[in-house]
Hints:
Largest sheet: 2 strands, antiparallel
GO molecular function, one term: all-trans-decaprenyl-diphosphate synthase activity
Radius of gyration: 19 Å
Subunit structure: Heterotetramer composed of 2 PDSS1/DPS1 and 2 PDSS2/DLP1 subunits.
CATH superfamily: Farnesyl Diphosphate Synthase
Mean pLDDT: 96
Enzyme class: transferase
Distance between the termini: 24 Å
Strand order of the largest sheet: 1-2
Number of strands: 2
Order of helices and strands: HHEEHHHHHHHHHHHH
Main location: mitochondrion
Shape: globular
Number of helices: 14
Protein name: All trans-polyprenyl-diphosphate synthase PDSS1
CATH architecture: Orthogonal Bundle
CATH topology: Farnesyl Diphosphate Synthase
Bound molecules: farnesyl diphosphate, magnesium ion
Amino acid sequence: MSEYYFDGKGKAFRPIIVALMARACNIHHNNSRHVQASQRAIALIAEMIHTASLVHDDVIDDASSRRGKHTVNKIWGEKKAVLAGDLILSAASIALARIGNTTVISILTQVIEDLVRGEFLQLGSKENENERFAHYLEKTFKKTASLIANSCKAVSVLGCPDPVVHEIAYQYGKNIGIAFQLIDDVLDFTSCSDQMGKPTSADLKLGLATGPVLFACQQFPEMNAMIMRRFSLPGDVDRARQYVLQSDGVQQTTYLAQQYCHEAVREISKLRPSPERDALIQLSEIVLTRDK
Ligand code: FPP
Ligand code: FPP
Ligand code: MG
């Protein structure tokens, strides 16, 4: 069960960023593009933490498909899915301890706290509209960006002693991570399940008001009540969906994602030029144009 998603068919977005960041930092520091074993381990650990969280997330969301296949909970049931997620997380913890660097251990254990707190934030809602957007961005950081930001920071710590570089790596990961999730929230409205390999139009059904909904609500204040009751009345999900599609919510969320990507590019451009640095810049474009 715990090997089920390690089939080479995921996007491997996180390990790719981490491996590129490792090289970009190593080149910046001493002109060596050699990726250390400990840095490679961070790429694996990041994907393991991510996978563990998805296995648990699919239990929480009662999802039956992911990456075009049945979820662990769908095949083996919820109890075993919870334990399979725990097992993946424990494998990640063992690998992390084996690196033997306490700074790196602190950086990556923070991610685990953020993931869980992000998931808790998602269960709550805010009455006040301004607070709601801040709440959404905080949730987005914790749920998605923290893992990318902190994995980037971890490989920079292993590759280079300069705290300025650690901050660049962190800021790049944070901004690209937030953009990635904003686009995920857009794709939930604009893409289809076949393309995504997981259910779409899912967030409203789960009671979640993401970027496109929060922007749409500025144009159609009548959505407020629906957001507050988490789209729980019959017809709420369809009506909210119509409002979103009539509004500029999707465009505004995409525009916001672009802003975060620009910031990521601005940060990473502070490193010495290298093909890997350029790949990280290109990656920000892929985040914005991806359709799965
Ligand atoms: C996907 O969200 C879920 C996450 C990015 C994080 C889930 C985190 C937990 C369940 C906390 C437990 C964490 C660990 C480390 C075991 P989504 O539902 O918006 O995306 P989806 O459409 O891909 O399901
Ligand atoms: C309490 O037993 C339970 C255990 C000793 C083990 C439970 C283990 C899991 C659910 C696996 C997941 C593990 C982690 C680390 C998340 P008990 O009957 O002694 O309980 P009591 O103290 O309440 O009497
Ligand atoms: Mg989910």
